[in-house]
């Protein structure tokens, strides 16, 4: 598709969903980016069956991998289901096929690990949910702390609610800061977390952080297994 | 249903959806409250047809007004569709019928106006999206600024992203502060709005605020019409 066509058709934005995703990872940036004039937003999935989030919400995809046009911006959200997505060849193939023609390849939360498993973060600075940050390096990504990390056309957001900061950052890049400020006002994004400091491992109470780590031990073990297989596949491939 | 039954069955939480809602209004508190042990979360709507949000997302309801059990917590989100919801007798009847047995009657964003149109905020302090705050008084509500306003069992959140602060506040009330802190860490809620101050009318750049007001003039006019009818109906009823 020529540049002119791309301009005529408006920006094509695809959020790539998979079962057991964390809905808020994508709901934040979706409602921010939906404000972009002329953009078309797609809920992309393997098939059109409802996607059930980790919290039990059912969302209807709008287009399949097979029928999806070339996207200008891809965003992969995270959540527990990212582990299966990392081993889903249809998912990885879709991302690899889209990459060369895509202006922005992005993720929120553990969606970064899906990009990584597709081999698409090698040599790029990236961030992800704090509990998965130490997994990025094995894929050749350069782990960087940050609510939103921008490295050329790879833009990665931190955990879950970082998707809102990510969305506004993307919006400013695409439509200018004044427009992004308007949208920030529209969504009344003047957050007051009820427990200041509780949202980050650096500033959370040590007992709370330890409890979170203990609670996720089984999940971390599964992550390690998936990572070992995914990294091995990348090296073979 | 006796107290014992209520305890046995776990907390029943219902998000009441309607067409053209603002998805993020409910996606935030949903993913926060979904962490409550033993709770059941319902997507309640008039029928089971997919609900299409203002940003084009389709969400599947899980239960109809007719089949919904007594809820312990009702949350009404907002968005442009709240105006039609305010004149939907099935919606208003559902809220009125649920109210006497409901522990918490809550809203996010302009969902407060739906509660108000049902006559359920009279004499209660409440908040809503900044662009609708001046509408509350006509319904006998006591407008109060705040990200989350608690008055007895009416808990109202401000605009859109305030739903996350609302959800964490509710979670702390229901399951304790330590639990809410764990969830805040889990969703990495340590927000860094890219444009500090841009999210509130008090601190936004005057030109941006004026543009937002100008852009919403038609919407404000429609709000005024709906409010006039809804208030008249309440006085007659």
From TrEMBL, chains A, B:
It comes from Teichococcus aerophilus. Pfam families: DJ-1_PfpI (PF01965). Residues 15-172 form the DJ-1/PfpI domain. PANTHER family: ARAC-FAMILY TRANSCRIPTIONAL REGULATOR (PTHR43130), DJ-1_PFPI DOMAIN-CONTAINING PROTEIN (PTHR43130:SF2). It comes from the Bacteria. InterPro entries: Class_I_gatase-like, DJ-1/PfpI, INH-QAR. CDD domains: GATase1_PfpI_2. This is DJ-1/PfpI family protein.
């Amino acid at each position: 598709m020529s540049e002119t066509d791309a301009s005529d058709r408006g920006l094509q934005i695809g959020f790539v969903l998979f079962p057991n995703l964390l809905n808020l990872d994508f709901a934040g940036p979706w409602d921010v980016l939906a404000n972009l004039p002329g953009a078309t937003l797609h809920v992309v999935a393997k098939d059109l069956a409802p996607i059930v989030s980790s919290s039990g919400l059912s969302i209807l995809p709008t287009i399949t991998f097979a029928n999806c046009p070339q996207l200008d911006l891809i965003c992969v959200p995270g959540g527990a289901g990212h582990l299966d997505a990392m081993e889903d060849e249809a998912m990885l193939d879709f991302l690899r096929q889209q990459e060369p023609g895509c202006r922005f390849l992005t993720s929120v939360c553990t969606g970064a690990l899906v990009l990584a498993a597709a081999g698409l973060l090698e040599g790029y600075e990236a961030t992800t949910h704090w509990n998965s940050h130490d997994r990025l390096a094995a894929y050749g990504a350069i782990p960087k702390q940050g609510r939103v990390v921008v490295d050329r056309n790879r833009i990665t957001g931190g955990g879950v609610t970082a998707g809102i900061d990510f969305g506004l950052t993307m919006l400013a890049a695409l439509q200018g800061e004044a427009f992004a400020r308007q949208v920030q006002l529209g969504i009344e994004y003047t957050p007051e977390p009820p427990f200041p400091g509780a949202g980050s491992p650096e500033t959370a109470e040590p007992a709370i952080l330890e409890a979170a780590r203990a609670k996720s031990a089984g999940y971390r073990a599964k992550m390690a297994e998936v990572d070992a297989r995914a990294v091995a596949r990348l090296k073979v491939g």
